Amino acid sequence: MRLNEIDMEFQPIIVLVTAPSTEKAREIALDLVQKKLAACVNIVTPITSIYLWDGKIQDEQETLLIIKSRSDLFEDDLVTAIRAIHPYQVPEIIALPIEMGTKDYLDWIKQVTRTYS
Predict the structure, then answer these.
(1) pTM value?
(2) Domains along the chain?
(3) What is the rounded CA–CA span in Å between residue 22 and residue 20?
(4) How far is the C-alpha of 114 from the C-alpha of 33, rounded, in Å?
């Protein structure tokens, strides 16, 4: 189902975050779900990340979090919660809009994440 058929005020997102370990990823995931900032977090491990940091190419094993949330929670709440726990100086926190999905799954994301009045 296309999003415009569901609710124009509701924009579900997928947020990608890398963490240095499965333990740290679990800590972040539990915090986000407990605070209702995420409906679900998948933890994928191990992944290999190759990136440039401090002028050197790094080749590291990391863990990937795939977070299902809402755009209205991203900037202030979700990012703040992740930064409070995350050990990296510059953690990867990027959001992608969910353009399509089943109505029941998208409704579930909306229902289990916190709302503001």
Answers:
(1) 0.91
(2) 3-111 (3.30.70.120)
(3) 7
(4) 10
Alpha-carbon distance of 15 to 60, in angstroms, equals 21
Token digits of residue 79: 């990012």
Rounded Cα gap, residues 42 and 26, in angstroms: 9
**Biggest CA-to-CA distance, the chain:** 47
Cα–Cα distance measured from residue 77 to residue 72, given in angstroms and rounded to the nearest whole number: 9
One-letter identity of residue 12: P
Place of tokens 């975050």: 17
Task: Please list the pLDDT of the chain residue by residue as tens digits (117 residues).
Answer: 555 555 557 899 999 999 999 999 999 999 999 999 999 999 999 999 999 999 999 999 999 999 999 999 999 999 999 999 999 999 999 999 999 999 999 999 999 998 754
Six token digits for residue 80: 């703040």
